[in-house]
Amino acid sequence: MAAWRNLLKDACSKMRTTGPSDAEKRRGLSGHLFVRGGPKLPLSPRVPIPSVEHSSRSSDTKATAMLYLIGLGLADETDVTVKGLELIKRVDRVYLEAYTSILLVDTAKLEAYYGRPIIVADRDMVESASDEILAGADTSDVAFLVVGDPFGATTHTDLVLRARELRVPVKSIHNASIMSAIGATGLQLYNFGQTVSMVFFTDTWKPSSFYDRLKENQQIGLHSLLLLDIKVKEQSLANLARGRKIYEPPRFMTVAQCASQMIETEEERGDGVCGPQSLAVGVARVGAKDQKMAAGTLKQLSGIDLGAPLHSLVLLGKRTHYLERDFIRDFAVKQDVFDTVWSELYEGKQ
């Protein structure tokens, strides 16, 4: 026993005198502990700490499942944001809302670009059978793709409210919509008033509530954006009455049709809101390579052809700034007519 004590005493004395070598010090930083006056003691091995995201997904899938509302932009498959595309590629199910608006490419092209099968959600599914979309969304991720921005239609707000009732978390991935992209006309966004919808007139149904909104905007000199009707997977009254699932061919309102209906309503109401000489801007396929714009009177626009859908129209307000005027004058149908109407009805009204 005495010999063991002496051996240990000599070793400790030597360590106090010399200390650890540089190599030993380096080793001490990577797995050994030097105790003053004592031998090296091995450290416990490091145990990796899982990330919060990994831990939550593995222990409670329910807490991380999500309904994603993803805006697709306005034109084609490449308009989706990087964040939106990453989510589309990893979620469990992908739906495409296909009746409040359309992209300028078909579903097959979207599937090829996104690398995912897509379930097309028509009006019946979204408005009447949304439970099918939300089924299982509390345990698996679901993407709901929307042309433009997710909250461009009240239908999408309703879907969010239903998801909340089921305690399904919702996250929105925003994108460009016609509400912002209409700035491509050169008209300043903060000079716009209420946005209104223009539906197809029939022989027996010609709603004019849009006229009242236009009048309110006109009274404070603001522009009015009109979103034009589309008919996708619609049934005729006869087929609807007979319960037959027969659908009419798709229809998309044009700038010319919208301008004609505005003039017709002005003739009925007569308050000088949107007469034949009112200046307006018609746009088609905003955001696409072949987008078109034309400025002129409603009478001129009622005879114009801007090509394929989608179309929108802006009725100019009297507070139109001269920079806005100069911008839209460049694509006036006839600049001399534009200048004459401007000087008679708009000049000095700002």
UniProtKB/TrEMBL annotation:
Xref: CDD domains: DHP5_DphB
Transmembrane segments: none
Molecular-function annotations in GO: diphthine methyl ester synthase activity
Keyword Transferase among record annotations: yes
A Pfam entry, by short name: TP_methylase
Name of the top EC class for this enzyme: transferase
GO terms under biological process: methylation; protein histidyl modification to diphthamide
Domain Tetrapyrrole methylase: 66-301
Keywords: Methyltransferase, S-adenosyl-L-methionine, Transferase
Entry keyword S-adenosyl-L-methionine: yes
EC number: 2.1.1.314
Region (Disordered), start-end ranges: 36-56
Metabolic or biological pathway, per its Swiss-Prot or TrEMBL entry: Protein modification; peptidyl-diphthamide biosynthesis
Role noted for this protein: S-adenosyl-L-methionine-dependent methyltransferase that catalyzes four methylations of the modified target histidine residue in translation elongation factor 2 (EF-2), to form an intermediate called diphthine methyl ester. The four successive methylation reactions represent the second step of diphthamide biosynthesis.
Family classification: Belongs to the diphthine synthase family.
Name under which the protein is recorded: Diphthine methyl ester synthase
Species for this entry: Imshaugia aleurites
Upper lineage: Eukaryota, Fungi, Dikarya, Ascomycota, Pezizomycotina
